[in-house]
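Why should sequence recovery work at all? Because a backbone constrains its sequence more than one might expect. Tight turns favour small or flexible residues, buried strands favour hydrophobic ones, and helices have their own preferences. The token representation captures these environments compactly. In the example below, the structure is given first.
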């Protein structure tokens, strides 16, 4: 979408080139170990096969606080979950996400709060699944002056609700251009 006021143009659109991998971009509690013949999934690891991982789990059992299976659905896109998709043709277990007691200390989670630990790991898998599927999309804004020269831009805004995404963008834009975002928000409200 685009809006032009006072010779200045604001463009807001889906950024088709911005797909940061949450396993690389942010700190996380769990370690995600996956095995798949066609896809490089999860975190980087040195295990050659699932049997090696199972042996490692047996050897380090006292260090591991929590572990959940990882299932991949590969049908018109990818999705990942800690719960079985019950689709024998297009899904199956591809690995595990686990955390150690040292991971809990590093993040600052109480080792006795199993519900919080499980929720954190499940949320990490959900975030990774969204990354794999590309939903919700990332957006960018670009502001051009009357000579079509870019004067401000930023990417990495994510959300399902475009109105909320635009409100978030305002905080990243130069203050002199806030009126463009406000006009765009008014325009969006008129369409609803």
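From this structural description, the recovered sequence reads:
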């Amino acid at each position: 979408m685009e809006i032009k006021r006072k010779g200045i143009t604001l463009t807001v659109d889906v950024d088709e080139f911005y797909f940061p991998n949450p396993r690389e971009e942010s700190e996380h509690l769990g370690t995600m170990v996956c095995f798949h013949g066609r896809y490089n999934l999860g975190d980087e690891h040195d295990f050659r096969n699932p049997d090696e991982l199972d042996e490692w789990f047996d050897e380090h059992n006292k260090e591991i606080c929590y572990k959940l299976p990882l299932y991949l659905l590969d049908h018109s896109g990818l999705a990942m979950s800690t719960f079985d998709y019950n689709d024998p043709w297009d899904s199956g277990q591809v690995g595990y996400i686990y955390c150690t007691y040292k991971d809990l200390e590093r993040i600052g989670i109480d080792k006795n709060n199993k519900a919080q630990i499980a929720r954190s790991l499940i949320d990490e898998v959900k975030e990774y699944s969204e990354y794999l599927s590309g939903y919700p999309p990332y957006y960018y804004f670009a502001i051009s002056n009357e000579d079509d020269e870019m004067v401000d831009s930023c990417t990495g805004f994510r959300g399902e609700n475009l109105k909320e995404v635009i409100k978030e963008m305002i905080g990243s834009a130069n203050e002199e251009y806030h009126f463009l975002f406000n006009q765009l928000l008014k325009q969006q409200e008129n369409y609803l």
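A few observations help interpret the result. The chain has two domains: 2-19+137-191, 22-133.
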